[in-house]
Design goal:
The chain has 159 residues and is α/β, with parallel strands linked by helices. Helices cover 25% and strands 23% of the residues. A 6-stranded mixed β-sheet has the order 6-5-4-1-8-7, with helices on one face. A two-stranded antiparallel sheet has the order 2-3. A hairpin with a 7-residue loop joins strand 4 and strand 5.
Length: 159
């Protein structure tokens, strides 16, 4: 089973011009994005190989950009926000580390490419995850500190 996570980052910078020392400020909450990378892939036994993460960056200067990370190809585990943000900055600079790719792709297109029966929208007011029967190869969609906007929720409703 492969678990896929999609993070819609409404403020995440789409250029490598953010400060590693100020991820919450200059990076448009890249601290949150970095924490999501760590939560997806870091385990006590090493890199979680059965997971992928697509981060849809919608912040300035040139949105949208999607950075996808595949645990099967990653050769480096990120255990700190600084390491994860550094890898994201490298990817946005045109030097993506192994296991990462950058595409000019927005949230709507990414969601429409996913199998509908596998999508699960993680929302703080949603049904408790323990009560949901999760199918094979689930795709979990979540928003940043602002959540997912109305347009994004319409896209999810249609899917």
């Amino acid at each position: 089973m492969v678990r896929t996570f999609i993070l819609k980052s409404s403020e995440g910078r789409t250029a490598p011009d953010f400060s590693i020392k100020s991820l919450a400020g200059s990076g448009g909450r890249m601290d949150l994005v970095a924490r999501c990378v760590i939560a997806t892939f870091a385990t006590p036994r090493g890199i979680r190989k059965d997971a992928t993460l697509s981060i849809v960056l919608e912040g300035p200067p040139n949105p949208p950009i999607t950075v996808t990370m595949d645990g099967r190809e990653l050769n480096r585990m990120f255990i700190s926000e600084v390491e994860a943000a550094g890898a994201l900055r490298d990817a946005l600079s045109g030097r993506p580390p192994k296991g990462m790719r950058v595409e000019r792709k927005g949230f709507e297109r990414l969601i429409r490419e996913m199998p509908r029966e596998s999508l699960y929208y993680l929302h703080e007011n949603g049904e408790e995850i323990g009560r949901v029967k999760i199918g094979k190869d689930p795709i979990f969609v979540l928003g940043d500190q602002k959540g997912i906007d109305e347009k994004g929720e319409r896209v999810l409703d249609e899917a």
